[in-house]
Sequence to fold (259 residues):
Amino acid sequence: MLVNYHTHTWRCNHAEPDERAYIEAAIAAGVKVLGFSDHTPYPFPPEQHSWFRMSVEEAPRYFRLIRRLRDEYADRIEIHVGVEAEYYPAYFPAMVELLRQNGCEYMLLGQHFLFNEEKPEYGSAAATDDPARLRQYVDQTIEGMATGLFTYLAHPDLIHFTGDEAAYRLHMRRLCRAARELDVPLELNLLGFHDNRHYPARRFWELAAEEGNRTVLGWDAHTAASFGWRSLEDRGRRLLADLGLTPEERVPLRSIMGK
Ligand SMILES: [Zn+2]
Ligand SMILES: [Zn+2]
Fold:
């Protein structure tokens, strides 16, 4: 893989510590363009603690450090600094403003929770057979894509719906269709393969193929070793190729400054 925009750092509390290790491993694996996209800081009220993202206070250091490394490694690899962010209507404008002030280059949409992440049970990846949750996931993700600020949608098949298959197809087709209309590529997430998660879900990518979506591969690297997982990359390419889809090598970054 020549380009990977989906890379985390220790700041989210669940990834390997050393940024240089990621960069060196990416270079060794032949990556030419590396984007850091750690879990975004979110200006929640103080009583709402979110364990899997950097704090608002940490944000300036994150952006500064990655820019410093970008300059240091400029002759060996092209580095960008962004975030992976959910769309939470109550806090989204303040979050984007915070990112703009810090010179964030791009955002990936990863809708890990529903509503405004107020409750742990709103997690998108928990198994559910409730069509209302499925609908909420799709509605909220579409609203996020419609802001025009996201470079691509990470793990679109994150929702773990175990209910009626017809409902799954109905709502996920809506998601695919909106992504196509809004010109937002869908990421096939290789970490899901590595961790044997419920995604990438073939049933979802069948819909994406029918709807003719743009696609891209993402390592979702939480360890430097991720860049060496060639067999997972092959598996992702095979799954898409089986369905007649070809992932784009380099999706253009969408600036978060406009709109
Ligand atoms: Zn993560
Ligand atoms: Zn994610």
Summary: The pocket of zinc ion (ligand 1) is lined by residues 8, 12, 14, 39, 222 (CB under 6 Å). Strands lie at 3-4, 33-39, 78-85, 106-109, 127-128, 150-153, 160-161, 186-189, 215-218. The two ends are 31 Å apart (CA to CA). The first strand starts at residue 3 and ends at 4.
